[in-house]
Design brief:
Shape: globular
Strand order of the largest sheet: 8-1-2-10-9
Radius of gyration: 22 Å
Number of helices: 8
Order of helices and strands: HHHHEEEEEHEEEHEEHH
CATH class of the largest domain: Mainly Beta
Length: about 220
């Protein structure tokens, strides 16, 4: 909880911050500050501080605004494959990390790079660019990441090699539409739609179609 030694510098400013938090999140949010060990920063204004607290408190204090957000928007993880921006629902992504050592496998398709040991859990490592009919990924690209994704309807997961992770984006599902131009055959098989966001077209992948496809079930 904020005290006389608060970096904001005084009881009056402390109370102003607490009042703002209570107004934004409810009285219980003030009590949650101790549990989350949130400390105000002297370099941030009041609005920015409240915004920072949003993520710390939001998940444990449901309110009307939280319910509205969950209904009206969907969170996706945006990433790049070549010059194309892709996205997939965040609930399918279990972790993102630098590329681990990969053990090659014989007699498998080009898109299956091998398997990796992630803290005792063996996952297949897939060059998703090749799988989707794009040019193979550049092994020398320092921004490449392994994005581990899972099915929500079956016990299947896999590590997808992507060129760059752009972060989490909020989208309005009602704005998702069919692509206006033809896509590669392999890509169209796993496409759930496209959406324009921040002056950029994002191609949305259907993770379930990808992980439950015959190719994945046979090799990955």
């Amino acid at each position: 909880m904020l005290s006389d030694n608060s970096p904001l510098g005084g009881d009056e400013q402390d109370q102003e911050l607490l009042d703002a938090i209570a107004a934004a999140f409810g009285a219980d949010a003030v009590a949650a500050l101790d549990e989350n060990e949130v400390v105000a920063s002297p370099s941030l204004d009041l609005d920015a501080t409240v915004q920072e607290l949003d993520q710390a408190i939001y998940g444990q204090l449901p309110n009307q605004e939280q319910v509205m957000r969950s209904v009206e928007t969907q969170q996706i993880v945006a990433f790049q494959l070549g010059e194309t921006t892709f996205g997939m629902p965040m609930e399918h992504v279990t972790e993102i990390q630098r590329l681990p050592p990969v053990t090659n496998l014989p007699n498998v398709p080009e898109w299956l790079q091998g398997v990796a040991n992630l803290r005792g859990h063996i996952v297949s490592v897939v060059d998703v660019r090749t799988l989707l009919g794009l040019e193979p990924s550049d092994s020398g690209n320092p921004t490449r990441r392994l994005m581990v994704v899972q099915s929500l309807v079956d016990e299947i997961d896999s590590g997808l090699i992507v060129d760059r992770v752009l972060g989490i984006r909020n989208i309005d599902p009602k704005q998702v539409h069919e692509p206006t131009s033809p896509m590669e055959d392999e890509l169209s098989d796993y496409l759930s739609g496209v959406i324009e966001l921040e002056e950029r077209l994002i191609v949305l992948l259907d993770v379930e179609k990808l992980l439950l496809s015959d190719a994945f079930r046979q090799f990955a």
